[in-house]
Design goal:
Blueprint: H1 2-7, H2 13-33, H3 45-68, H4 77-86, H5 93-112, H6 118-132, H7 143-146, H8 168-193, H9 199-214, H10 225-233, H11 240-260, H12 265-279, H13 282-289, H14 293-308, H15 311-330, E1 334-340, E2 346-348, E3 359-367, H16 373-385, E4 391-395, E5 399-400, H17 404-419
Parallel strand pairs: 3-4, 3-5
Antiparallel strand pairs: 1-2, 1-3
Helix pairs in contact: 2-8, 2-9, 3-4, 3-8, 3-12, 3-14, 3-15, 5-6, 5-12, 8-10, 10-12, 14-15, 16-17
Length: 421
């Protein structure tokens, strides 16, 4: 969104953001209607867990400056931590106590009874303390110091369509980022709750949300890692949790704006630190690390990617890794030479052990698609170069699929073998 607004300097930035939301919404609804949710199935669990783990740590690191009310940094996670640590000498005690107290109260309430809305109670206590003791005058930053919550609901209006063609690449990138990120959140929560996930419906729902954002003064929206995790930990079980959340946000705009203005920023930071820890699923990480080496590599690479490059690039890295390992496994063929046994059956053998040198039987196990063409071609070349072979039999009982690349390869090999007798 920042890139879109910066590139449209001669256009109203709010109108640009609203137009971008409309465009993202149209693409998302179209993707859902075309049932493109199945494409997300090609993103592996290690990549999803790696992205959420890395993003969770980033959420926590991003809140450290708010916890100490010191300047933060930008860039990689190392740069952010370094910038924060260099100003630790200027840290304020009051916000640190407020943030730690909020986080501690949430954990105590969760330990006492998980069904209680610990986050809401803790933030209410922090806001009440901020108001009663006028902590803003004592140096504690509050929501109002960033921007006061406006009273009333936003007006509905259509944005200007000026410059829409320039926004197409950014709208597509925003759509991909939004869908992959929200799908990662949804899959992680579905794995915990055991609920069925229908990603095409998710796409349509997000698209409708962005269409609404485009006519109500908002920029493109996506699923939120922190708020989704908080929602689940607070006891949400059905989609009504989202409905009630929307109603309460609307009520807050109408009636609670002046109250929310007193909420300390450090208290929100304490809440988000708890959420960041919740996002790191240690049990699932252990199971991935002791699984196949490719799963561990995909997980570690995605985590490091979230820390080293912008999150949208990290998502593309994770998707690329998923596809790479999928194609790598898909192209793995097992080609065996078989021989007749005395019982009339076939069994694996070596070239030297074959009882009938004139007959070369090759059994192929795996996917017969263009990625496996070189392995099939090498096996057929070996048969062609075998001067003792008079007959070549391909046993394809355990092979799957047959695309035009493999079909052409087999046709050419058959002609070559026929010409050689």
């Amino acid at each position: 969104v920042g890139t879109a607004v910066a590139g449209a300097a001669d256009v109203d930035p709010i109108s640009t953001a609203m137009l971008l939301a409309l465009m993202v919404g149209v693409i998302q609804v179209s993707a859902g209607a075309l049932k493109l949710g199945v494409l997300v199935d090609y993103i592996s669990t290690p990549v999803v867990v790696g992205y959420i783990t890395g993003a969770g740590v980033l959420i926590g690191v991003g809140q450290l400056p708010n916890l100490t009310e010191t300047p933060g940094g930008s860039g990689t996670i190392v740069a952010k931590i370094g910038a924060w640590a260099s100003h630790l000498g200027d840290a304020s005690t009051l916000p640190l106590l407020m943030g730690a107290g909020t986080a501690g109260l949430i954990l105590v309430i969760r330990w006492y009874r998980r069904t209680l809305p610990g986050a809401l109670i803790a933030l209410s206590v922090a806001t009440a303390a901020s108001w009663m003791f006028d902590l803003g005058d004592k140096g504690l930053r509050r929501v109002a110091d960033l921007a006061s919550i406006p009273a009333g609901l936003p007006a509905l209006e259509l944005p200007s369509l000026e410059g829409w063609s320039v926004l197409i690449p950014i709208a597509v990138a925003g759509t991909v980022l939004s869908l992959v990120e929200s799908s990662a959140v949804a899959r992680a929560l579905a794995a915990k709750t055991g609920q069925r996930l229908e990603l095409s419906s998710e796409f349509i729902g997000q698209g409708l949300a962005n269409l609404a954002a485009g006519i109500s003064g908002a920029y493109p929206t996506s699923g939120s890692l922190s708020r989704s995790a908080l929602n689940e930990h607070s006891g949400a079980r059905t989609r009504l949790a989202g409905v009630f959340s929307g109603i309460l946000v609307g009520a807050s705009l109408l009636f609670l704006g002046p109250v929310v203005d007193f909420t300390p920023i450090s208290a929100l930071a304490g809440l988000l630190l708890v959420v960041a820890v919740d996002l790191v699923d240690r049990a699932k990480i252990r199971s991935i690390m002791v699984s196949r080496r490719s799963d561990a590599i995909a997980f570690v690479a995605t985590v490091v990617g979230t820390w080293a490059v912008p999150l949208d690039k990290a998502i593309y890295l994770g998707v690329g890794l998923s596809l790479f390992f999928y194609l790598r496994r898909a192209r793995q063929l097992r080609i065996q030479r078989l021989d007749w046994t005395k019982h009339g059956a076939v069994a694996e053998c070596t070239d030297a052990d074959a009882s009938c040198k004139a007959m070369r039987i090759l059994q192929i196990d795996g996917q017969l698609f263009f990625g496996a063409a070189s392995e099939v071609q090498i096996a057929l070349e070996d048969a062609y170069l075998d001067r003792d072979a008079q007959v070549v039999i391909l046993r394809l009982r355990r092979a799957l699929g047959l695309d035009v690349t493999i079909a052409s390869l087999l046709g050419q090999a058959a002609l070559r073998l026929l010409e050689s007798g």
